[in-house]
Write a structure and sequence with these properties.
Blueprint: H1 9-14, H2 17-31, H3 41-60, H4 71-91, H5 97-108, H6 110-127, H7 131-134, H8 138-170, H9 174-189
Helix pairs in contact: 2-4, 3-4, 3-8, 6-8
Length: 190
Amino acid sequence: MGHALPIGPLRAFLTDPIPLEFLFGLGLARFHAAIRWQGWAAPAILVCAGFALMHSAPLFVSHATTHGLQGLPRVLAWGGAGLAIVTGFLALRNVKGGLGQALLTMGNASYALYLTHTFVLMGYGLALRREALAAIPQYLLVPPVVLLACLFGVASHFALERPLLETARRLPRFGTLGKAARCSESEVAT
């Protein structure tokens, strides 16, 4: 649809894969509660399919690196895989025991993971400059890099995000500050 538009900011926005991937998340947020999953098999298949797509994407996407991957290949390789993984894990939210706790922790750390995964990927990109590592098929390197990004995200969640959130919760609310400021101003005026 966007490619039919004249060249300009609207076309650039509508043909950029990031907004489409964002819409995947919005759609999932809107409809996932309405989906009634029976058992764990379908969600587990979705998660496995998403990881399989992510793992095998370098075999099918003709691009030297994942950096700068654009258009439909990016949406399918990364956006589609991400949508399947998140959908499956959301459906598994009632899992008990260690797996349930691990899923809950990853969900709680998801924003920290989102903010920190680029550092892991930058390190991965630098490491790929070494010929020995670059010679290894990338589909073999994707799982450990994803695991490392997840571990770094969880560590950042516990070391930074949670303490900052706790500190923010102890701060006075904006409405209270506004009311106090108005009282002070009226006292000064009289």
